[in-house]
What does this fold into?
Amino acid sequence: MPDLNRTPLFDLHIELGAKMVPFAGYELPVQYPLGVMKEHLHTRSAAGLFDVSHMGQVVVWPKSGKYEDAALALESLVPVNVLGLGEKRQRYAMFTNEAGGIEDDLMLANMGDHIFVVVNAACKEADIARMQTHLGESCRIEVLQYRALLALQGPAAEAALALLAPSVAEMAFMDVAEMTIAGAECVVSRSGYTGEDGYEISVANSNAVDLARALLAHPDVEPIGLGARDSLRLEAGLCLYGNDIDATTSPIEAALTWAIQKARRAGGDREGGFPGADRILDEMANGASRRRVGLLPEGRAPMREGTRIFVEGSDTPVGIVTSGAFGPTVERPVSMGYVETSHAEVGTVLLGEVRGKLLPVTVAEMPFRPAQFKR
Amino acid sequence: MKYTEEHEWLRVEDDLVVVGITAHASEQLGDVVFVELPEVPMTVTKDDEIVVIESVKAASDILAPLDGEIVEVNSPLADEPGKVNDDPTGDAWFFKMKIEDLSVLDELLDEADYNKFIA
It folds into this structure.
């Protein structure tokens, strides 16, 4: 596959029998010999190791040396409370645009004298440019090009990682810590993208293979590909940028209002002050015309991305599925998508168009499977 | 057993043609999570879409390999789609067809041809 980037774990993926596919400009494992279904179930019952090195890792250094200055600068791009984030704590955020849409979603962490940011692979060039343009005056933007990112997810993740680094057991969900693991300097956060307890580990490319091998040596840990990563995050109700959120969907429409803390809302200490604040604060007060909801199809037929949603007796769609697949843990098809707010109440029965047939689908709470985080 | 380039196998049993998908196809599809079978009897023309199967990856159609009449479907598959991965050439047949002239099967691929085709 020409012109595709490879992560430092490429040779290891091949050795493990992975099927490689192009994804966001990288050649990445979609599955290993275990297969998508078993990889999914293994992550939920034991632990899965994911190579997410394609994601962008960026450090925002305040030129003043003060976290506050970097935090306030970054708050001009995201509707979240960066200033009030505790030291060594991580938070979910999104870059918004002037129209109130989402340019990317990200994780940011207060590292004391800098902010550590993780962004999506497909958006990273734009995100870096955005930060350089808007934060360049008060901050230096350092792109960590030579660092890999591994995710260890599942109920056995703590025990497996604690064998190499005992202090990870003390971390709570969304804590971040710098530590040495198997001789390598790492930045570890207790977070992930599966709805399971687990960790994401940033490590130098030169140490990534050794660390991955050390984790895979544990009998509970299996390598997991992008296929299971997608079904795991879907059961967990988590958005995939480009599918479930994009430049046209506002955080309110996307049901991400929880990610906008009080300090940035109307009446807060630092109300607004982010791109698209007019629309976003207005939707917060007055509601949005559509909302991202969970959708449970009746029967076994998955309703996939692009499935149009109707109400009985009308041929004008009221919604569309943005992600949909079979959920191996819940043992049924699950979808998420946008529906007009008047049809978005949990329990509402709508119709999804599958191969020309209208099949019942019910608006449902997300996550489809309760999160297993260690608070 | 005979094969098509659509990765179906065909086997004659009691003058009916039994149709399923090959082990190679089931591996390529990945874990099958949904099978939709037609109402029978149903008169079909070669390449009509007969069965919908969905794996964890995507939806695919199983086409009629020949002109004829579908007289029976393997109904339990709808409740146990995973059988398509476990036993694609045995238990997980999809449908049985009545065709006018069984000699048309001679024109399909034999096992050696099919193995060459997927190599």
Remarks:
- Chain B has a mean pLDDT of 95.
- The first strand of chain B starts at residue 2 and ends at 3.
- The interface with chain A takes residues 30-31, 33-34, 36, 52, 54, 56-57, 59, 78, 81 of chain B (CB under 8 Å).
